[in-house]
Amino acid sequence: MRICDRWMQESTTDRRGRLHPPQCTTSREDRQIVRMAVTDRSVTSRTVAQHSESVTHHSMSARTIRRHLQQSGLSARYQLLGLPMTQNHRRFHRQWCDERKMWAAEWRVNGVKLSLLSSHASVCNTTMVGLEIGDTMEKGC
After folding, report:
1. Which residue intervals define the domain Transposase Tc1-like in the entry (predicted)?
2. Could you tell me how far CA 105 lies from the centroid of its own chain?
């Protein structure tokens, strides 16, 4: 390859190959990707990739979007993080949180005894009465 051809294609006259392939997005496109992730936290990396493809007219994988966001200190949502809570599970979770608020008022640590009214174990249909120092506890669920 002639030097002028190399300069036109690669913007360098160096004969050594590149360590990394050329970046497919510009810094402006990177900022737009980050802006989309910051303004709408519910957007997925696949959605950002599709939007970016429609704007820039070259394809970009969702993995590339996640990598760009990770380099910026952000993260994109995956399409499904978890199943939504059922009504029953939501009620048990709220009950557990309310009981936990009461724990702060009931806990007395005087070096001998730690007393608990109830715990998350009540959701699992088990009961806990109290703990003495040195006692062990078995998990119910």
Report:
1. 30-100
2. 33
Per this entry, what is the length of the chain?
141
CA distance 56 to 84: 35
**C-alpha span between 122 and 99 (Å, rounded):** 10
Its pTM stands at 0.40
In 10 A of CB 40, how many CB atoms? Answer: 12
- 66, 75 contact by CB (below 8 A): yes
Q: In the prediction, which pLDDT does 106 show? A: 64
Instruction: Give yes or no for a contact between 58 and 24, defined as CB atoms under 8 angstroms apart.
Output: yes
Mapping DSSP to helix (H, G, I), strand (E, B) and coil, where does residue 27 land? helix
CA–CA gap between residue 1 and residue 123 (Å, rounded):
73
pLDDT digits (tens, 9 = 90+) for 92-132: 888 888 887 776 556 655 443 444 444 444 444 444 445 55
Is the pLDDT at 80 greater than 80? The verdict is: no
